[in-house]
Specification:
The chain has 261 residues and is mostly helical. The chain is built from ten helices and no strands.
Length: 261
């Protein structure tokens, strides 16, 4: 039998690993943002991507864009996924105590991050296209009131949709998700993580698109969106917060739209 002390140690090791991963992602992102502010050039993954002498971007910039978005998604989404990850780990610890088959929690986490990796690929392509059409500034922010207003209003309206409510409901109920979605084995754990990541992406994808409004590397904007996602998923009145933010975003979008008229 596995001792309770060993199980508690495993929990703290997992929590520490998640915290260190998140902090490392934020530290790297802060370094990239500081370099870009100082030089006007994004050095993402060591490849210069933006700046007055680097337009338009070639297709080779898709890789650093993808890496930049992937790292950002780890920094932004891993904190809000922590309750689900810890719940999965707790169920696994109970299975170990009962000497039943269990799977390492990292398999579940890898399934979750796989979905956001796919999202990062799509976001990278979207940014590459928007840049090519001169809709983004060198700071990677919208310089088109139509684009900025459309994203803001779209995000605001989405916060009130049944899809948002359904996906958020799954994200807010970790134990319920595991009880209804449990699958045995390593592949099953990966699929559970992937499915949870799918609900999470369905809940938050358009909030991530808001990065195009104030700047993809704007740390204050990134921190605000991270906090909003975390509150939506963890706070007692998360759905109310989501809908309230929807009203604010839609109103902001209308201001952006008509201010330029």
């Amino acid at each position: 039998m596995i001792s309770e002390t060993l199980l508690k140690r495993d929990r703290w090791l997992l929590l520490g690993g998640l915290a260190l991963t998140t902090l490392a992602a934020w530290a790297y992102m802060a370094r990239e943002a500081r370099t870009m502010t100082a030089t006007g050039i994004c050095q993402c993954a060591g490849m210069q991507m933006s700046g007055p002498d680097l337009n338009p971007w070639s297709s080779s910039t898709l890789l650093p864009l993808f890496l930049m978005w992937s790292e950002m998604m780890v920094a932004m989404m891993l904190p809000s996924a922590t309750p689900m990850v810890l719940t999965f780990a707790r169920v696994n610890r109970q299975r170990r105590v009962q000497e039943r088959p269990y799977v390492h929690t990292l398999v579940f986490v890898s399934g979750y991050l796989a979905v956001w990796t796919l999202f990062s690929a799509l976001a990278a392509v979207a940014q590459w296209v928007l840049h090519g059409k001169a809709l983004l500034s060198p700071a990677m922010a919208s310089q088109s009131r139509w684009l900025g207003a459309s994203i803001l209003i779209g995000a605001g309206l989405f916060q009130w949709t049944p899809l948002k409510q359904a996906c958020l409901g799954h994200c807010r109920s970790p134990l319920s998700f595991l009880l209804t979605e449990w699958r045995e084995g390593g592949w099953g754990a990966f699929l559970m993580g992937f499915r949870h990541g799918g609900y999470c992406t369905g809940c938050c994808w358009i909030l991530m698109a808001l990065l195009f409004v104030a700047g993809v590397m704007n740390l204050w904007w990134i921190a605000a969106l991270t906090a909003l996602v975390l509150i939506e998923k963890a706070a007692a009145r998360g759905l109310f917060v989501a809908r309230t933010s929807g009203v604010v975003l839609a109103a902001w979008g209308l201001v952006v739209l008509f201010r330029g008229s």
